[in-house]
Automatic annotation (TrEMBL), chain A:
Name of the featured protein: Proton-translocating NADH-quinone oxidoreductase, chain L
Organism of derivation: Leyella stercorea DSM 18206
Biological processes per GO annotation: ATP synthesis coupled electron transport; electron transport coupled proton transport
Cellular compartments annotated: Endomembrane system; Membrane
NADH-Ubiquinone oxidoreductase (complex I) chain 5 N-terminal domain ranges (all copies): 80-130
Protein keywords: Membrane, Transmembrane, Transmembrane helix
UniProt-recorded Gene Ontology molecular function terms: NADH dehydrogenase (ubiquinone) activity; NADH dehydrogenase activity
Spans traversing the lipid bilayer: 6-26, 38-56, 97-117, 129-147, 153-173, 185-204, 234-255, 276-301, 307-328, 335-358, 378-401, 413-435, 455-474, 495-518, 549-567, 652-669
Residue stretches making up the NADH:quinone oxidoreductase/Mrp antiporter transmembrane domain: 146-461
Topology of the protein relative to the lipid bilayer: Multi-pass membrane protein
Amino acid sequence: MDFTYSIWILLLPLISFLVIGLPEFVNKKYSWSHKTAGLIGTCSLGLVTVLSYYTAFQYFTADRLADGTFATFVPYNVTWLPLGHLHFDLGVLLDPISVMMLIVISTVSLMVHIYSFGYMHGEKGFQRYYAFLSLFTMSMLGLVLATNIFQMYMFWELVGVSSYLLIGFYYTLHAAVHASKKAFIVTRFADMFFLIGILIFGYYTGSYNFSFTGTEIAYGAGASAFTVADSARALAAGGMILPTALVLMFIGGAGKSAMFPLHIWLPDAMEGPTPVSALIHAATMVVAGVFQIARLFPVWIEYAPQALEVVVIVGAFTAFYAAAVACAQSDIKRVLAFSTISQIAFMMVALGVCLPGHHGAALDNHAQLGYMASMFHLFTHAMFKACLFLGAGCIIHAVHSNEMSAMGGLRKYMPITHITFLISCLAIAGIPFFSGFSSKDEIITACFEYSPLCGWWMTGVAAMTAFYMFRLYYGIFWGTENKELHAHHTPHEAPVTMTFPLVFLSIVTVGVGVVTTLGGFCDWSWASFGSIVSAAGTAYTVHFDPQVAATSTVIAILSIALATYIYKGEKQPIADKLYATFPRLHRWAYKRFYMDEVYQFVTHKILFRYVSRPVQWIDEKIINGLIDFTAWGANEAGETIRPWQSGDVRQYAVWFITGTVALTLLLLCL
Amino acid sequence: MLLGLWIARNVNQVRGVMVAGSSCLLAMSIWLTLHFISERAGGNTEEMILHASTAWFPALHINYEVGVDGISVVMLLLSSIIVFTGTFASWKLKPLTKEFFMWFTLLSTGVYGFFISIDLFTMFMFYEVALIPMYLLIGFWGSGRKEYAAMKLTLMLMGGSALIILGLVGIYFFNGASTMSILEIAHNNHIPAAVQNVLFPFVFIGFGVLGALFPFHTWSPIGHGCAPTSVSMLHAGVLMKLGGYGCFRIAMFLLPQAANDLAWIFLILTTISVVYGAFSACVQTDLKFINAYSSVSHCGLVLFALLMMTKVSCTGAILQMLSHGLMTALFFALIGMIYGRTHTRDIRELGGLMKIMPFLSVGYVIAGLANLGLPGFSGFIAEMTIFNGSFENADTFHRCCTVIAITSIVVTAVYILRTVGFILFEKVKNPHFEELTDATWDERFAVCCLIFCVAGLGSFPIWASHVISDAVVPILSVIPTL
């Protein structure tokens, strides 16, 4: 099958970045008008989306291979930088997960491009904004299409930079500048581990390719003897090398995906424009860490299954932590940000619980379930979370504030936003017939397979999710209207460029939800996500565990009921009473358990004060001092010697004679 | 011979001539590079291409012997680019323009001569030719504590060259006092190991001073801080590379046994350089000082990679020289332009420049991102090559050094973003700045050229990597472990 056109999926956004960005940079005189720049970006993205859908259609309708998996295509692969016997390639790799990611990224990105027409209307730097969006889309697509880890790392850094640029879009605001810096440095810190992990991996396996199997070692044999010896050693020892490398890479992924304790950048990243938060910090970039583990999953399963427990623990803790914090935030974007962290943690846990050891076989059905559920949740979450963020954007646009106190009662003014927001809330809460139900339920089933503790823990977190999402929903659309604010300015529904993406995304959410829910209960193999993506590659039919499904649905409905009871009314006596009873708990959660302060302490107090400053002091005082001292010494020596050349003949004569006598005596004695 | 023409060309007096001359040089370097690649492709496997030799001072076997290999070719290309853009960057230099450019040209002559000569003495002579004008250029056209800076820089570098000449004479005599040609000495090297161990530190430290080896780097911040723009560009961009080049070409090539025995000491020093420079840069407040310390860190990485002594890491070292040269030149050019407008380089006083001079600010952001190793720019490929190469040394000591050096990528991000945040973003701090203008055409041209080169090298690294790695092999092949 011919996929050579797929290279254009990468090139088009790059071209549009250059076309929009270059005139802007070289001279402002030549820059495009707002409309043209936006159209260039959106059209190229539209083409990318068409190409992605076409690729997906071609790919998934093709015949499976004999063993039931989809063939993997590498339409492009060129050596970009040779590194001894290793080499750094750039190319395009098509396999089920990368094609699935193509769909997610291009869809959400296109929606955000369209949405931004309305949202960014009239903003200064509109062209710059679209240029960065194109850059980001290109990097993200490059990341998922990467043929090897190094290419992945390269685009990984590029998405980091695009995210930096977009968070700091409003560069005159202190908070935005600070947040962008924080995001970049925290993720960069994590990337350092990723890089070390990559280096270890490459060194011991003799290749940067993802599928590290017998063929790779054969490749090493052709290249150099020492690679073979080392990879043989790494394998024979079965030792700590590959698990170490994988865990290091996971740290990199945890940084990007905002896992505890590297999550601190994501809430602050909300300082960027809201569509950017929807695209980068909810739907695509932040799931890069999940994608990375999924990509390397064969290696994890084969060589480091125990290390997956690290992923489970980190994920489970983060899910709980973020949900707890989300319950107490008042800025709607922060609530959504913490909810994103929590949902990504769900995906992480789902990947981590794929332990093959429990049932003996290498990859039995249960082990597959987690992987499939994780990818599916990634897909559904991208859609409904993007919808939530874009909805939040409409709301912020209408009331000019991020705070929940400025909202309330908006359902009358913004009906479309209200309905789409509600649909997404129901999806994230896990109500049947909405997409979040199918994916989250599978994750929880997989967790129960792993251990009951894990299963109940995640069910608890799911209940918290439903609670805080409906707290948010009622806070925005019901509750007390802020009359004072509305006096000057009545909120109104957003323009059609902004509502269209909302409607589209919520239709996807409902559509996928209905099909997969029915499919799951009736065992329709075609309606199952597992028929597209699964750990072993073979088709895999999802079958709901009725017990788990019933439990989680009941718990979700109970939480929603609780939230309704507390937050729906105009007055909220119970909520106020709760604050009054547990002021400290609320305060801690509101302050995110003081994690930021801890970091602030470490970086400013320790690194700056106790490392950088002393280094500087040593440099200035000791090293520079020593050198200056040498110069001073030379100077002084000169000054001391100078009087000796006094020009006084008698003095010279005295020295001359003394010397002669001394020499003569010396010679005589010898 | 064409190479002779480069050296003789010493008559530039006004801008026009300077532009003509430097474009001519640039064209020639490009031609040379293409010629070199085609020769290599054509199966010419000689170590040095365009080899020529004339007896100069026969009694001491001094020849004017020149030739180029892959390393010198890329270094020449780098120097030409920087001289070319440096000319544009100092377009408006006021007092004594003619004299300034004369010294500037003499300086670049020394640099070119150094990179092409393969005779110990000729090389040393050109080295001195490159150093002396620096004193005048900084002392006269500089700013701030310029006399102190010029004196310090010259004295420290002269101290370094005293060590070098000792080492060179030692090499000459202990190898039988029969030839000064680097190639001949290398191929028939019978300097005893004990002697090598004595001479190696002399030569390595001597060149290391110029390569900002810890703890001999202190000339660099103050020297760069006080030098005029184009001199900073040329100095950080090219002159500091002389150090790395000399360490590789002379210390390691001619004293291979000692290089193998003593590398560990210097490896520790360079690892310190890398991290130390980066941490120092975090607390500086003068733009040029930040950059100078960042240069200490990056040049430390060059020496670090050379001492790792694998083919990949040495290729990475040369790539890093190339990339650091272009990036710092870009940085210093931009700093010069900003300083020329605001008359301050203190980051606490600057702020909000993005609004006032968008072109320069975007240029600065690009330079910063290139400096912290963003893919697509040259810094990324150089660093990745170095780290990959270093990782081939599997023992614990080398691994530790490598991991410590890798931490510098985070610290680099910290100081770059700190600076960018301070000077470009947020509110305009000084109301007078509102009236300042953005870059003029000559400045735009210089900046665009450099960005184009940095991005070009970063996007299509394969040719440079090939040219360099072929040239690295003969040097490494004489070092015993390999």
